[in-house]
Design a protein that fits this description.
Blueprint lengths: L14 H34 L11 H30 L6 E8 L2 E6 L6 E5 L21 E4 L4 E7 L4 E5 L4 E5 L5 E5 L5 E5 L14 E6 L1 H5 L3
Parallel strand pairs: 1-5, 4-10
Antiparallel strand pairs: 1-2, 2-3, 5-8, 6-7, 9-10
Helix pairs in contact: 1-2
The chain binds copper (II) ion.
Amino acid sequence: MTTFNGILLQDMYNLIGIECTLFNDYSMALLLLILVGFLLIMGGMVLTGKYLVNKYMFSDMLEFVWTVVPAFFLFSLGIPSLYLMYYMEGGNSCDLTVKVIGHQWYWSYEMHEFGGEVSIDSYMVQLNDLPVGGYRTLEVDNSLILPMLTSIRMLVTSSDVLHSWALPSMGMKVDACPGRLNFMNLMSMRPGVVYGQCSEICGVNHSFMPINVEFINWSNFLVSY
Ligand SMILES: [Cu+2]
């Protein structure tokens, strides 16, 4: 069901996602401030017929202000944006490593940890087999089950063409390139199911290779495979 929650960004599962949402809110507020301020000044001048141009014909102060104020706005956007970019790179330490492989047109996951060899193929559930309450083209037969509150290193690659492993509610997206390992750090702050889709046009069934990650606690995770 479509709800009002769908108008804005999704509820985030990790700190990076929360930071992205805050940055989006801040930039939109700044944009609105500039737009409304500009419209009020221009509208006021046009409606009243009183133009400020004559008063400020040779004003050094005005030139100073219209240079410094926009520069301040730009820096206030650029600095948090740079901070976020480096934050997304993640740290070097992790507790679990998962390999994600993109195929035409499904995802497969591999985990070689805790003495176990986990290898999963994750295909989309066809429309006829969709469970009640399931999301169309978003449910998969085998979802990736991961522990929450754990730093997980995702190694992303592809076996054929370019794909992209994306989780909008974690603010993360990594390209899957054949012959190359890209990585990202995931850490979910709460349990739940995170949905995503391939985000690189990869062929006719590009729209039908959803990503489904389930975050649960450690004790359940250890017995889930
Ligand atoms: Cu793809």
